[in-house]
């Protein structure tokens, strides 16, 4: 189990274990990350937008394994709703949020000439506005406590681009830029900021994709598993990763 925060902090702070907020965590990679963080001792704040059935199922699975989960339903792209939800969570000063995983994202793929404005805005607002809306409120409490972990889930599309995903690639590349810049601002206060850039992972997001064609492009000839991404996120949230910040770590089977 990770010890948190660093041992040189005030005694009353060092006894407090951080909660971990995972956005878009009702299923897929987000659910796997929530489960992995729960296994190493974090209380989980599991955010979801609308799929309550999936969120309840994820909570039940984590609790059955001995974890503690609190559901938080809000749309990260909605600034007011996010602020209201986070202010309620932050009001509990005895249970600080020391880890945030910005995982919420949507895909609305289309060739660029056919890309509708709504699809552009929904994708970019969920990823980039969502990062801003969530992280801006949580970063200063981390800075004041001199410990925090911010983990942003980007994508191989944000690293190398992908046909039919101009909106998605732009949003995920923007998240990489935000990761690197924020890491420089808060590193001296013990807060790390990193990004994970998964490749093709076996989740609902690739339903209907031509998997056999995709596999030929991946040197490992297989899709990634959500649990593999989750294990990396759990490591980045640990004390052992305390000297890693501003990094973009690919997990893509050799694709990029």
Question: Could you describe the 3D structure shown?
Answer:
This protein has 256 residues and is of the alpha/beta class. The chain has one domain (11-251): Rossmann fold (3-Layer(aba) Sandwich). Helix content is 44%, strand content 15%. The protein has helices spanning 11-14, 28-39, 52-64, 79-90, 117-145, 156-160, 166-186, 211-215, 226-236, and strands at 19-22, 43-48, 69-73, 97-102, 148-153, 191-198, 248-251. The protein has a seven-stranded parallel β-sheet, sandwiched between helices. α2 (28-39) runs parallel beside α3. The longest helix has 29 residues, at 117-145. The protein is globular and about 50 Å long. The relative contact order is 0.15. Mean pLDDT is 93; it is low at 1-16.
List the topology elements.
Layout: H1 11-14, E1 19-22, H2 28-39, E2 43-48, H3 52-64, E3 69-73, H4 79-90, E4 97-102, H5 117-145, E5 148-153, H6 156-160, H7 166-186, E6 191-198, H8 211-215, H9 226-236, E7 248-251
Parallel strand pairs: 1-2, 1-4, 2-3, 4-5, 5-6, 6-7
Question: What's a quick, concise take on this entry?
Answer:
The chain has helices at 11-14, 28-39, 52-64, 79-90, 117-145, 156-160, 166-186, 211-215, 226-236, and strands spanning 19-22, 43-48, 69-73, 97-102, 148-153, 191-198, 248-251. By secondary structure, it is of the alpha/beta class. Helix 2 (28-39) links the parallel strand 1 and strand 2 (43-48).
Are there runs of 5+ residues with pLDDT below 50, and where?
1-16
Based on DSSP secondary structure assignment, what is the total number of beta strands? 7
How far is the first residue's CA from the last residue's CA? 32 Å
* Average pLDDT, all residues: 93
Radius of gyration: 18 Å
Q: Percent of residues in beta strands?
A: 15-25%
């Amino acid at each position: 189990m990770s010890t948190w925060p660093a041992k040189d902090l005030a005694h009353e702070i060092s006894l407090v274990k951080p909660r971990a907020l995972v956005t878009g965590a009702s299923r897929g990679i987000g659910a796997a990350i929530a489960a992995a963080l729960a296994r190493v001792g974090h209380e989980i704040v599991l955010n979801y937008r609308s799929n309550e059935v999936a969120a309840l199922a994820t909570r039940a699975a984590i609790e059955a394994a001995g974890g503690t989960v609190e559901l938080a339903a809000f749309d990260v792209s909605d600034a007011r709703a996010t602020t209201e939800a986070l202010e309620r969570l932050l009001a509990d000063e005895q249970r600080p949020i020391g880890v945030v995983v910005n995982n919420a994202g949507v895909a609305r793929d289309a060739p660029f000439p056919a890309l509708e404005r709504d699809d552009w805005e929904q994708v970019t607002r969920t990823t980039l506005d969502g990062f801003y809306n969530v992280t801006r409120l949580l970063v200063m409490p981390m800075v004041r406590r001199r410990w925090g972990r911010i983990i942003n889930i980007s994508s191989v599309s944000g690293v190398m681009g992908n046909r039919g995903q101009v909106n998605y690639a732009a949003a995920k590349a923007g998240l990489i830029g935000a990761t690197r810049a924020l890491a420089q601002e808060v590193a001296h206060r013990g807060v790390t900021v990193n990004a994970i850039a998964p490749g093709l992972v076996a989740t609902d997001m690739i339903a209907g994709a031509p998997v056999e064609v995709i596999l030929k492009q991946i040197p490992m000839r297989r899709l990634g598993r959500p649990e593999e991404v989750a294990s990396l996120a759990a490591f980045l949230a640990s004390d052992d990763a305390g000297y890693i910040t501003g990094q973009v770590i690919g997990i893509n089977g050799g694709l990029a």
